[in-house]
Specification:
Number of helices of chain A: 14
EC number (chain B): 2.3.2.23
Radius of gyration of chain A: 21 Å
Oligomer: heterodimer
Helix content of chain A: 40-55%
Largest sheet of chain A: 6 strands, mixed
Strand order of the largest sheet of chain B: 1-2-3-4
Strand content of chain A: 5-15%
Helix content of chain B: 40-55%
Number of strands of chain B: 4
Number of strands of chain A: 6
Organism (chain B): Marchantia polymorpha subsp. ruderalis
Structural class of chain A: alpha+beta
CATH topology of the largest domain in chain B: Ubiquitin Conjugating Enzyme
CATH architecture of the largest domain in chain B: Roll
Keywords (chain B): ATP-binding, Nucleotide-binding, Transferase, Ubl conjugation pathway
Number of domains of chain B: 2
Strand content of chain B: 5-15%
Order of helices and strands of chain A: HHEHHEHHHHHHHHEEEEHH
GO molecular function (chain B): ATP binding; ubiquitin conjugating enzyme activity
Pfam families (chain B): UBA (PF00627), UQ_con (PF00179)
Largest sheet of chain B: 4 strands, antiparallel
CATH architecture of chain A: Up-down Bundle
Shape of chain A: globular
CATH topology of chain A: 3 helical TM bundles of succinate and fumarate reductases
Amino acid sequence: MNSDGGGASEEDRPRDDEILAFHHAIRAADAEKLEFVGDKEPLSVLAAEYEAGNPVFRAKVEKLGQTYVAIRRARGDGNCFFRSFMFSYLEHILETRDETEVKRIQKNIEQSKKALIELGYQEFTFEDFLSIFVEQLDSVLPGRESSVDIDQLVEKCRDRYISDYVVMFFRFVTSAEIRKRAEFFEPFILGLSNMNVQQFCKTSVEPMGEESDHVHITALSDALGVPVRVVYLDRSVGADGKNTDVNHHDFLPPDCPTVEMPPVVLLYRPGHYDILYTREVQNLAPVPRVEEPQDLPELKGLQEAKETPVKSIQDANSTQEAIAA
Amino acid sequence: MLDVSRVQKELVEIERDKNLSGVSIAICEDDLARMRGTITGPVGTPYEGGIFSVDIHLPSAYPFEPPKMQFITKVWHPNVSSQNGAICLDILKDQWSPALTLKTALLSLQALLSTPEPDDPQDAVVAQQYLRDYATFVGTARYWTETFAKRGSLGLKEKVAKLVEMGFSEDASKSALESCGGDENGALEKLCSG
């Protein structure tokens, strides 16, 4: 942007509103291609995407199919991690009807709210975003006035107002967690950028459209107490140059009981996150938590039936973990 | 849709500690999307003693989009256009976040007056002068402050005196003038109607 010229440079330089208008035009063009969250598609669409592509990708996509069956794409507008997390988590609650989990996360939300206030954020800057997320949590539980089904959930998550508000709430929560545990996060942030924790939060977490990586995921997962699995689809191969196993990493919040499969499973391709579905969820009716089977006794059979595929996933995971380690 | 309730909360907050913060905001003609901000020049800078008006326009997607801000008072500063008051500041562009507020944006403008960033200039002429001939830059900036940012405050006293002569109290006249961005006729209308 520097220029030696006199008055002319000011005319050459696009004005701020022109730059913003340009950004909007790009986003609008993206929006026409894909909603904030797309439809659930069979994993075969990924295979088709790489049909003529890199052989490592092709091999990995095939292996992905052993554990995962479907994908739901998120729009690549820099908020894809947060939008994917939002949908994946809400869908998980909708399917499990897990009121205990909602009560648990609400406690964490309160903790985040406290942290934000202690860090000097004014309540009015985040309270609307917070309440929109709490509304969504309420709506995915059964028997509420606002209860939604999966189609309505999809619709809500495609609504700009709702989606942006929830994304912004997550950005607040992420920022608060990083600032609160600055000592823990600082080395990771220094590894990513030349910024200190404060600057990082201001420039890479709080503005909409700033992309997320492991720092953001760790912070959000820890703050809300929600385990997240990220499956990495990239061109990396094992030390022998041949191993094309798909690596994944489970982000497990402290004090979190071990889970077979985190409620939020995301597929990461360099620069982008989408939602993944395991075999387990596919074609299964909502299953209540084990401690409350009296709610839906007729589902007991289904729960038993799903045990076989779960086992195979566990096997696949332990193999992957062994290789990753 | 402009988030009206959020904007109103922000205005209350700014009003609450405007004497401490050195920044204030007044709404123009009952349109919540149009405002006028005021910044006091930071102490120890060529802008000290000046009062700078900023035109603020809220886009309908606020707070998801940054407020549009532009200096009304002429300012000699590398990151402000000496022609039209356009401002070059990251948080008014891609670094904006709904976590920021009108108050924090005005405080950032105030901070920008203290610490110019001549490497990312809005006004190339001013930036060149700042880098190559700092003494002249300071002199010009101070002269502009004296000429453009202080006349307003002198004028304000006269305007208040005028309104007091018409029979309104000094405090009411002052606040009416402030809320109208110093416009006498607007202030008079406000005083008569309220």
